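Notes for week 9. Today we move from apo structures to complexes. The key idea is that a small molecule is not decoration. When we ask for a structure prediction with NAP present, the ligand SMILES becomes part of the input, just like the chain. The input block below holds both the sequence and the ligand string. Read it once before you look at the output, and try to guess where the molecule might sit.
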Amino acid sequence: MERIVVVGAGHMGSVIVHGLLDGLPHLEVVIVEPSAQRRASLDSRAEVAAAYEPRPGDLLVLAIPPQALESFADGLPPKACADATVVSIMAGVRLETLASTLGTGAVLRAMPNLAARVGQSMTVVCPGPRVPPEAVQRTERALSVIGRVLAVEDESLLDAATAVAGSGPALVAYLAQSFTDFARGAGFDAPDAAVLTSQVLRGTAEVLAEPGVTPESLYREASTPHGTTARGIATLREHRVGESVRAALEATAERAGELAG
Ligand SMILES: NC(=O)c1ccc[n+]([C@@H]2O[C@H](COP(=O)([O-])OP(=O)(O)OC[C@H]3O[C@@H](n4cnc5c(N)ncnc54)[C@H](OP(=O)(O)O)[C@@H]3O)[C@@H](O)[C@H]2O)c1
């Protein structure tokens, strides 16, 4: 039976495991977690282990902090990853580092985001040069349980993907806070202000996903000349909000590059 082993039962690892158990129930799913307390609280449908015991053909998903990679690799038996396909979701750990630390060229990087917990991640995947197409497809299938998957060949795109997709929900949430604050200030209670904001984001996201719709076409369509939205957009322009958001994305991507060394 096809086996997927997820290492690390933190926020992301446990979401991926739940997604796999619900979305691909025919697979054998193992979760490796050193903490006995965390192991005890895991989904009982998954096999749980304190350490990785390799089996040829494993898809090994590393959902551990980047600084834990060395110690994870040090604890492995010799050639443990030689017959596995390794997918790392660790921010800023390059394919070259993964390959040399784990002793295999069959490595992929994936950058999910926290919308994975509602099955709406935008995950960008970059396979190493020695990963066969069927292993890429297998990885895409596995990660599709947490949302949409986009594969890229150029690893340098992952820094931008970390900004737009990885940090995207947090950056959008920061902007959404202003909507909630404004609604609260105008007299809406907290639950109504939250519903107003989240429903506007949800509706906007769905319209943007329609064929042929772009952010610009949407805001132009909604702006009657001299109307309310036009005045709001003009104020955003005056305050250079577009430039500020671009600067934030550039800074986030730059930080992703720094972390990767
Ligand atoms: N959270 C996000 O939104 C997000 C988005 C994209 C990418 N990522 C990446 O996903 C990875 C995990 O993030 P997270 O937010 O899920 O972190 P987290 O909640 O801290 O989870 C990390 C887990 O890995 C376990 N762990 C540490 N060393 C291990 C080892 N040697 N073997 C097995 N398990 C080990 C930790 O156990 P202990 O607590 O017992 O040490 C913990 O359960 C990170 O590399 C991060 O860069 C996260």
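The longest strand covers residues 121-127.
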